[in-house]
Specification:
This protein has 149 residues and is mainly alpha-helical. Helices cover 55% and strands 7% of the residues.
């Protein structure tokens, strides 16, 4: 995207700028447990569905640490309204501003790869699965070597 600049450097120190925000590693399996209590007045079924889905994401670990429950709830509310209004072609014009707000909240909540880079959030790799895959791959190589000999 034009004007966005380069992605942040992975090191903790950037030349000429001092210390950068340290990288926050989020669990690949997402946040465990029940979602927090809905913080806004009133709630629809669509909002609750979104709320429950979002609080299972890896980013939810960071939201919980920084107390972003109200921001996540606002995102759920705006997204539910935008998706409801988006159904007709005539509604697209009226929903454009709302979708802009939704996109901005997505960025602030780290819901896109670029937003995660800017926030310096990284989802941890599943080291156990990687080791398991390495063993399977190396085992297959050994079997092929024996078969061809």
């Amino acid at each position: 995207m034009a004007g966005m600049g380069a992605a942040p450097k992975p090191s903790a120190v950037r030349p000429g700028r001092g210390l950068a925000q340290p990288l926050m590693v989020l669990p690949q399996g997402g946040r465990r447990g029940k979602p927090p209590k809905w913080p806004l007045p009133g709630v629809s079924g669509e909002e609750i569905d979104l709320w429950e889905q979002l609080w299972k994401l890896p980013q939810a670990v960071a939201w919980e640490k920084i107390g972003s429950e109200r921001v996540v709830a606002r995102y759920c509310r705006l997204l539910a309204i935008a998706e409801m209004r988006e159904s007709g072609a005539a509604a697209i014009k009226g929903v454009a501003g709302l979708l802009g707000e939704v996109r901005q909240l997505e960025d602030r909540l780290g819901l896109s790869p670029m937003a995660m880079l800017r926030l310096r959030w990284q989802i941890s790799s599943d080291e156990v699965a990687e080791k398991r895959q390495e063993r399977v791959t190396s085992g297959r190589t050994r079997v092929r070597a024996v078969e061809t000999a």
